[in-house]
Amino acid sequence: MDFALIMFSLLVLTGSIWLLDRLILQGKRTNKAEPWWVEYAKSFFPVILAVFVLRSFLVEPFKIPSGSMIPTLHVGDFILVNKFTYGIRLPIINQKIVQINNPARGDVMVFHYPENPSIDYIKRIVGLPGDVIVYRNKQLLVNGEVQQQKSLGEYNYVDNGLSFVHTSRYTENLSGGRSHEILINPDVPGLHMAAVADFPQREQCSYSFDEVRCTVPAGHYFAMGDNRDNSRDSRYWGFVPDKMIVGKAFFIWMNFSDFKRIGLTIN
């Protein structure tokens, strides 16, 4: 279900009735009460307009459905996404009309999944246009430079409410970006070759046992989940085109399972 399209349709419908009433119907009514459908349309039009503008151009809420971004984001986090920091885009078609900033290495970004644009993904940007990204033996290299990791000890969580996962927590310092936390599971292979085989080989990437090497093309980005061994990301389906970008995640406003997460900023 395309919520933006539904909102736009309601906006056009209520706005048309409001305009029709002002231009034609209002003058034809003497002392008669206005029809119920006109009254409802006039009441809802400004509310729908305000929500549509806010959601399309300023801030949009999302809910985190999976654990691919643990420990940064937890399942059930309700987050806010800045819609204008990477440029102003027309709603529905997502066409950029005003350029403001480009995504930076380390940003947590929401985008339309390239293989199915009706699905929204959230990952961290680790590769910018022109970067050479290598992920080898659970170690990230950007343009030949190892991105330093520091152990923070063990980390445990429950996956999908069913299975208990024992893993390790690290801080990772991205070149030109910010320090953030990641999870690495020593019991899981660094690269799931079976998953890679499901997607066509791209000329910008090469795969070998436990390694992927990609050169990020112009206008695209390389995205990875912070939960490195539980994330389907650019290692498996390729790059994020600029035209698929939704916005930058910046704030957690609610989590009904853990109230301590309310009000946290997203690093």
Write structural notes for this entry:
- The chain has 267 residues and is of the alpha+beta class.
- It folds into two domains: 3-59, no CATH class; 64-261, Ribbon (Umud Fragment, subunit A), CATH 2.10.109.10.
- The chain is built from four helices and 17 strands.
- The strands form four sheets. Strands 1-2-17-5-6-15-16 form a seven-stranded antiparallel sheet. It has a five-stranded antiparallel sheet with strand order 9-8-7-14-13, with no helix packed on it.
- Strand 11 and strand 12 (179-184) form a beta hairpin.
- The longest helix has 26 residues, at 3-28.
Helix and strand arrangement:
Layout: H1 3-28, H2 36-58, E1 59-63, E2 78-82, E3 88-89, E4 96-98, E5 108-112, E6 120-127, E7 132-136, E8 139-142, E9 145-146, E10 149-159, E11 163-173, E12 179-184, H3 193-196, E13 205-208, E14 211-215, E15 220-224, H4 234-237, E16 240-241, E17 245-254
Antiparallel strand pairs: 1-2, 2-17, 3-4, 5-6, 5-17, 6-15, 7-8, 7-14, 8-9, 10-11, 11-12, 13-14, 15-16
Could you name the CATH topology of the largest domain? Umud Fragment, subunit A
**Helix residue percentage:** 10-25%
- How many strand units? 17
- Shape-level CATH architecture of the largest domain: Ribbon
| CATH homologous superfamily caption of the largest domain | Umud Fragment, subunit A
Oligomer: single chain
Under CATH at level 1, the class of the largest domain stands as: Mainly Beta
Radius of gyration: 23 Å
Span from first to last CA?
Answer: 30 Å
- Largest pleated sheet: 7 strands, antiparallel
Q: What number of domains?
A: 2
Q: What class do helices, strands and sheet pairing give?
A: alpha+beta
Low-pLDDT residue intervals, each spanning 5 or more residues: none
- Bulk shape: elongated
What is the residue-mean pLDDT, rounded to a whole number?
A: 91
β-sheet strand percentage: 25-35%
Number of helices: 4
Summarize the helix and strand pattern as letters: HHEEEEEEEEEEEEHEEEHEE
